[in-house]
Structures are given as C-alpha cells and as structure tokens.
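Example A, followed by Example B.
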Amino acid sequence: MVFHSITFRAVSSVAIAVVFCLLFGPQAWADSGRVTVTEENDTLLSTDDRHYTQGMRLSYLSGQVTPGDDWDRPFTWFSGALPVFESDGSVKRKYDWTIVGQSIFTPDAIELRNPPANDRSYAGWLYTGAGLLQETTLPTHHRLENLELLAGVVGPSSYAAEVQNDWHQFIDVRTASGWSHQLNDEPGFVLSYERIQPQRRQTAFRGRYFGRRGHFLVGYREA
C-alpha cells in the first residue's frame, strides 16, 4: 500500500483560519445549524497552477448536541477511549458534516503532456465525512477540539481533471495537459485531531496540537 503525502500551500492556511472562525466563533455556537462553503484557489496568492491548486468543500454545521442523547454518545465513547473531549468544564458539542469536498493537485509545468518524474503528481481527492467539535469553557480559558474522519477516492474518479480543465476553458486560460498521468484510482481516508487552547488570562501559555493519519494524508504537527 502506497501512502501519498500532500503539502498544502499558504492559501490553505488562510482558509483553515477562516473555517475555524466560522466553526468556533460565538455566532456558530449560538445558532441551530448552518451550511458552509469553503473555496481555496492558488490564484488568490499567485498567477500559476501548481501543487495544491484548488479545493472546495460543502459542509453542514449542526445545532448544539443535547447532553445524554444519541448524538452525544460518540463524544462519550471517544472520551473514554482516548484523551479527548474531556468534560472538565462547561461543554458545547456540535457535528460538522462534510457533504462533499474536492482537492486538486498538479505539477509546476502543466503545459507538458508528460510531466517530469520528480515533479508533483497530478491528483484529485473527492471525499465526504464528519467531524466532532467541542468547546470547553474553563475558569481561565477556552479549549477547542475537532476530531474528523474523511473518506473518498484518489484518481480519475475524483473528476479533478474535468473540473479543472472545464473551468479553465470557461474562463479562457491555459488547460493542464498532463492529466493522463494522474494517480490511479485508490480509496483513501484521513483521520485528524486538532486541539487549540487560546492564551490564558494570567499566563503566556498557548498550545496547539494537530495530527493526521491516513492513506491520503500523513503527518503530525505541534506548535
């Protein structure tokens, strides 16, 4: 089994920050549910198509979970099996359902029909999934957690080639010539966990922990 490691460009970091504001902001926890569309494109920061070049995600953020009901059970199960979703403060829980998402990756030289072997591969990632979100209010600070599982397909069945080139034709820009060399169809999954503790009121501590494991994305980050 081959694991594909994908490096996201700066545009992804901007989008992640925006999404976290939407998911964890005060208004997000106050309403009964909302649909979110996230669009990432490298044209926001550059004029070329390369590496992680395009991403779209349609998701639904649920209303707040009622403590003790059936929707609360996954949180309880994970908190008993792993050091996550502790109930050591006032807790608010929600679900983030990914209805559909797609990510597109290309090499630097998209004008070449046969891209160099040492360049980024053509690849698409079409997926769906769900995330468990928890905000814990403690006397000195808030803690935010997100446990997410995504599943989908890498390869021609992701329709990345059609989406990119049809869009390029529509806006009258150069299409990518090497999609015939994209990765073959393979199932994939991403399991990720992120925990954020904003700055405490009386200390200078700030923690952020992030991990991913999967057939499509592999990595760990701690800051």
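Example B, a separate protein, is given below in the same form.
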Amino acid sequence: MRSKFAAAILLLLSLPLHASEVEYTGAAPESIKIIGLRVPWLLDYEKPGPYNKVADALFSESPLAVHLELQPLKRAMRHFFEGDADCFFMGDTDEAYFIGTPLADTPIIVSEPFNTVNMRVFSFGNTEPFSSVDQITDKRVAVDLGVGGIIRIMQVIPNLTQAVDALNADQIHAMLSKGRAEAALMMDYDYALHAARHPEQALLQFDPALTVQKVQDAMMCKQTPRTETLIAHVNARIAGMSKSGRLVSILRPAVDFAHSHHKPSATAPTYSDY
C-alpha cells in the first residue's frame, strides 16, 4: 500500500511521535492505547496508505486521547493479547486468535466495519486461475502476512502442505512470477493497492467466484467504560463517512479494482482497463 497514496495528512489534532506512533489529543485526559497492524502502503507511517487516512478520520475529535502505535503482525498480536494495549486496529475476532491467550475469557467489543475485503487465491500467467481451495493443498503457497500469516491460514485451510510466509504483495508477486510459489493467499484489497503502484507489472490472476474468506476490517477493544466511549465515537464517524461518501473516496481506487477483476480473456487486461 503506497507512494500513490502520498503521506497521509495528519489532522491538526494529531501529534507525530516517531515513525510508528501518533498521538490524537482528546477532550478528556484519559488515554486509550491502540496497537495497529503495520502493513506498508495500507497502514504505515513510513509508507502510508488509505488506512492512515481512515485512522485520522476515526480518531479525530475523539472524546478520549488516543495513542496509536503500529507494529508488525506477531508483535502487534502479542502486545494486544498479552500486553497493556486497550484496542487493536484492524482486529479480527476469529476465535482461533484467542484460544490459549490471556484474553480467552475477556469481554471484547468491536466497532462497525470500515472496509470489507476478500481473501483470494492468486496465481501468475495466462493459465486458468484456481477455482477451488482443494487445487492448492499440495502446491507451494505464499501466504501474505496481511491475511494473518500461516498461523491463521492453518485454521482456515488446515490441509495446506507447503505454505510459506510472504511479507507483502511485492514479495508475493516476485515469488509467483519467478516460480518460487505456485499460488498465493492474499486480500484482494491489498493486491489492488499493489497493482495501483505497479501498472507496469503483469496482473496476477484470481477467480472472483472463489472467496477463501470474507473479512470485515474493524477495531476491537478489551471492554471497559473508556473503550465503550471510543467505540461509540468510532461507530459514529464510520456512519457519518459512509453516508457522506467520504469513506468510499478514501478507500478507492482499490475497491473498484478488486471488485472488477476477472478471469483471463483472449485479450489480456491491463491496469488501465480497471
């Protein structure tokens, strides 16, 4: 996610700390600590993307001060599940994440979703894309960390035999195009952001009829009176931005691309076709 989505303009209410943290001031002195999943070109302060703008919009004018720190997947999960973080931005309430953690019996509240994405099976070349998960169980499959990495995929597709972690869409495209992987699991939205940055690359293929998993990106928090106040504020912001069209304008062009991508045709599509 991207130079095309130039550095997100931090609102006047936010104060940058260092490259992975932002402080949003609030009317009350209490502070909410949020851990965000750092995904370059999607949500990242060095390589910002549309979710930077979403975070700015959701946490601006918050009734409570908000401290947002972005961390890589495993560190972010550990910080939220075992540390002192109040909330997880881009959280997933899949029970598999909670089993065996200190939060297994902790009440969790979740905001309304601000984006819906689909996990897809990607491949490279002009061959017919995979139309069933069963077709990749014996393949070497690159798993994007943006879908939760292998730890999550083995809960969704437990019979994968050759799954390997990939850091991002850039690495996945390289692995597929060079034959180091035969298939890849990645969110269509994340790939669309990658394709928008690299119109010179051959498009990866996926069957739009095959959705491995549908995921609603939202914020989840350990339930307390303070986090209930913040979630109510976030939900109000999401509703307002959805009604005004601002949310869609932030999330495009990737939404349009992801929803219009199709199987290969006699004339290979280019990015401009989308």
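On Example B: The first strand starts at residue 14 and ends at 16.
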